[in-house]
Write a structure and sequence with these properties.
The complex is a heterodimer.
Chain A (H helix, E strand, L loop, with lengths): L4 H9 L10 E2 L5 E4 L3 H12 L14 E4 L9 H17 L3 E3 L9 H7 L8 E4 L13 E4 L2 H10 L5 E2 L2 E8 L8 H12 L7 E6 L1 H4 L3 H11 L6 E3 L4 H10 L19 E6 L6 E3 L7 E3 L10 E5 H4 L2 H11 L9 E5 L3 H9 L2 H8 L2 E2 L20 E4 L15 E4 L2 H10 L11
Parallel strand pairs in A: 2-3, 2-5, 3-4, 5-6, 8-9, 8-11, 9-10, 14-15, 14-17, 15-16, 17-18
Antiparallel strand pairs in A: 1-7, 12-13
Chain B lengths: L1 E6 L6 H4 L22 H9 L7 E4 L11 H7 L4 E4 L4 H10 L2 E4 L10 E4 L3 E4 L4 E4 L5 H8 L3 H12 L1
Parallel strand pairs in B: 1-2, 2-3, 3-4
Antiparallel strand pairs in B: 1-5, 5-6, 6-7
The chains are: A alpha/beta, B alpha/beta.
The complex binds iron/sulfur cluster (SF4).
The site of iron/sulfur cluster (SF4) has 13 residues of chain A, from helix 10.
Chain lengths: 430, 163
Amino acid sequence: MGMTLAEKILARAAGLETVKPGDIIEPKVDLAMSHENAALVINQFMEVYKGTGLPENVWDPDKIAIIFDHRVPAESAKTANNQKKVREFLKEQGIEKFHEIRGDEGGICHQILPENGYVRPGTVVVGTDSHTTSHGALGAFAFGIGATEMAAVWALGKVLNIEVPGTIKVVVTGEFSPLVQAKDLILHLIGKISAQGANFKALEFHGPTIDNMLTSGRLTLANMAVEAGATAGMIPSDAETLKYLRETAHVTDEVELMVPDDDAIYEQVVEINVDNLSPQIACPNMVDNVKPIDDVLGTKVHQIVIGSCTNGRLDDLAAAAEILRGKKVSRETRMLIFPASGRIYREALELGYISDFMAAGALVMNPGCGCCLGIHQGALGSNEVALSTTNRNFKGRMGNAEAEVYLCSPPVAAASALTGYITDPRNGGN
Amino acid sequence: MGKVIYKVENDISTDVIYPGRFMATVLPTETPMFAFADDKDFNKKLRTEEIEPESIIIGGDNFGCGSSREQAASCLKGYDVIVVAKGIARIFMQNAINLGLRTVVCPDIEADEGDEIEIDDTMVHNRTTGKSYSYEPISPARASIVDAGGLIAYARQKLLDQN
Ligand code: SF4
């Protein structure tokens, strides 16, 4: 009997011939990622060892990656102390896949992992971050776990007691209109199946539109799979995956591609044609409250944000620079741009995007999560409205429960920055 | 038997249960004071009133959606409440199981603040309205973690077994 991509990867990681949805397995982990919340993982890891008399050593330091991104540079003494504690632990344990708060190697975890070649097709990736689903873009089975679950992974090298999820197949056909892209597709899908439509399931993306999509767009899709509740969002690996791994991630060793079986069994098939898809907007306060842009044109916006693990990559910045170049951000709004990594920042600098942004009046911030989760930088005032290329608009997300967040693609964000209200980029920002 | 101390709507995210700006606070002993921090009245109630163990929070669909932050489970565990919701998002549910916060997925549950709720092996009974609702049994994978007293104890045993 054929297996889906999730089933194939999990069967292999659990050392089994086959698995089916509902099976309880303990898959081996190829990569275990944490960010600042490693501080809590360390605490729980020590708890696991308490009273055992065993030395507190992680199972494999080479398979653990730590990236500081959520609050960089530290916004408070408390955060700085957490980061300090993590640094000390990494040294003691010999963990070298550590990305510091630096311009040469730092950035958002979900950008750092792929761009450094840490993620491979067919592997199991866990992260103490819900958007770990991102790495399914490269054909891995990647999912978010809590800190205690990660502590168990650090100790044992496997995820304890997980159930094999059923898979929903998403088949995408058609060609995007200019200035419509992966973000609009994933927002449309979440609007269609709802924020819990894939709870406890894997999403597997197929179809000619996906075949033609670059890895950066696939990362946007897999990143937001969790916003439909999905355990994992996956794209079968192909020539584009290999190209990305070789040319962008500079991987030189052997790469094995993995695709689902032709006779795999899916729980559900969702079909989408993007030929006539317009820019999509997720309206407050739910990511599945998705409307075509026409329904919200003219909504006043006080803060515009481009960045995050969803849409802070080089082509996102390129699309925004194209629209902003030589123009001015409206004085009725403010615009913050957070490149997803130091590398992207430097590439954008070389290509002139950063100076396009600054000259237009946008403020380019340091790489990292920035105001995406409302911790530091770019909090909203009460009754203010933000338009953002990030992935969540829950109440309070940008640091103020009295404010509202709309989600959109980079072209929509850039076009709206010129006017100060939600604007269709296809109308040239007018 | 527990009393419903709060009822929330659908899609209550971990940003609402434990706002991001308190995420530098990580220890389970310190997180409870920030539970529902932006929901000032309920946060105050939790912090200042005597919350009986096994008091009930009634949730709608997709309770705990969003971030994987474990604080969203540990802050509620600190009050020993039980979450009874129409649906619960995966990561939150797993974190709850791992930390010993009791969650019950009860798709048809109807209850209001102040109602008295009793949960037996198969049903949730609303003793105030006299109505009973079946709930989804916890999966065997999760039950073994619960039986061990949480994931720390479960993982510790596994570690000892393999050494
Ligand atoms: S950019 Fe936002 S969604 Fe992405 S990892 Fe950072 S906080 Fe999470």
